[in-house]
Design brief:
The complex is a heterodimer. By secondary structure, chain A is an alpha+beta fold. Helices cover about 35% and strands about 10% of the residues of chain A. Chain A is globular. Chain B is elongated, with a radius of gyration of 29 Å. The chains are: A alpha+beta, B alpha+beta. Strand 3 of chain A pairs parallel with strand 5 of chain B, so a sheet runs across the interface.
Chain lengths: ~90, ~575
Amino acid sequence: WSHPLKSTFVTFPSDLVRNISDSQLAENYLKKFGYLQTEHRSGFQSMVSTNKALKRMQRQMGLEETGVLDKATLDVMKQPRCGVPDVAN
Amino acid sequence: YQTFEGDLKWDHNDITYRIINYSPDMESSLIDDAFARAFKVWRDVTPLTFTRLFEGTADIMISFGKADHGDPYPFDGKDGLLAHAYPPGEGVQGDAHFDDDEYWTLGKGPAVKTRYGNADGAMCHFPFNFEGKSYTTCTTDGRSDNLPWCATTADFDKDKKYGFCPSELLYTFGGNADGAKCVFPFIFLGKEYDSCTTDGRSDEYRWCATTDNFDKDIKYGFCPSRDTAVIGGNSEGEPCHFPFVFLGETYDACTSEGRGDGKLWCSTTDNYDDDKKWGFCPDKGYSLFLVAAHEFGHALGLDHSNIRDALMYPMYSYVEKFSLHKDDIEGIQFLYGSGTGPGPTPPQPETTTPYIDPEETVTTKEPQTTVPTTTTTTRPVDPTKDACNVAEFDAITMIEGELHFFKAGLYWKKSSRNAGVVSGPFPISERWPALPAVIDTAFEDLLTKKLYFFSGTRFWVYTGKSVLGPRSIEKLGLPNNIQKIEGAVQRGNGKVLLFSGENVWRLNVKDQNIDQGYPRFTDVMFGGVPNDSHDVFLYKGHIYFCRDRFYWRMNSRKQIDRVGYVKYDVLNC
């Protein structure tokens, strides 16, 4: 049996998709599509909690609302999609 | 469905659109056609009309771009974001942008429309045979002029039908040279170029001069992508180079090594480590029609839906036989109302094709024809004629080895061969003229091959073309308080289970009588299935109990081994 391949990740020139961690990917996704938007209330800015944003995203995508970044949620985040935010800003 | 805040919508129904530029991935007539069909999706269910403009400002300006493409929302390379569009309004509002780092197709791999040759501009047929070898891409084999070509039928050796594939040696698009072919070598800023280049451009589009000196003539066009070309990376449009070296290893095929996202890539030179030239390998691509239909939904005022099957759901998924979901229809009709009267003439694509002197470019002795003008085919989508659009069938049953779906005077057939292709609809009256439009259930007696059809309290028996009936179901020994028979399952030995309400009876077909001990309760005999199934049938050894859009599948050990959608799992929509 061969030894398992030792993958080395390379940064390809002009590749817009970088190797980022799952949590980074999730945060970017939640921000980009409006789930983790900054709310403005009387000049006070606050971020929706990641847990809440994840639940909102999971509901929109028909996933189990766990508020946890599980594999199913990550898989959905990696799927091709429209660039228009899901939550109106 | 959702609309944008404030229910943004156009204040007129005669919407205009303009295609600003094209993707090198598909022939422009295919792109025109995809957009025209995408507009038609919405036109069919609203009073909206869509007129294409070739200059000036249109309500919906359509463009392809990569990464930073002139608005505050850059694209992200291949996959991920595919496109975006703005809700109705002035300026950028209403516009639709498509990420040209995607591979745009009709959703099923390279969509290669030929030019010239003798196939009247037909699509390539992959794979095709040529001199005993099978080809899955366009090829230059058999030609001395390096022009890629393909067969438009499965067997060139037999049919001799062919056309030329997109190539910069045949034509360019956009630019200012009216589609003239590239001239190699050409001079640009004093340097000589032997192939298309992205030099001098910030948008990464490949171009060439159409005379030998760009500096003098300033004539240029964009290079169409060959079907074998890589997507994105930094070598868009170049073919993979096999073998190539990557981190000291030699590769003979596309690989996902070196990437964390699993995407297949290749080097476009013999050594990636030295040259760092690469691109993604062609895949099925994204259906421009489906993505455009979604984006035009935004451009008309619809926001994202959270219904997975709706067109306005934010994620891409390919469907072969597309029909607009009820949710999308309700959404768009909330904004614009429903359409009335006959539809207007669909917008036509640009039909001009540059003439190429056949003597100049084609060395084969095959007959030459110029590409005919193309007309957009926009067959009306009649939702009642699409089996995938039927929420609940009147009856489903196996007849002569094919699953039959009955609904309101029509039936569809799903062959057990041909990968389960569904054909139809066919009028019930043509094959079984004695039957009414609504069939509650039916079964084929496995011993005699007679067909039993039930509708209300009556039944008919067909033997070939001869028919007996209608007769009352009481003649079979069923009680007179039954409204209808909702399901039938053959049990072998001439026995058939008949379902109605919560009860099931066993019919002895030979004796034309109900067995003793029946009726029995369905949920006692078949634990775990809905008590109010509107259809029960036998298919591939399983009993299917249908309720609403769903089925419960029971195996021979009376276990429910699957619950799913009739539409997706049985009809393969």
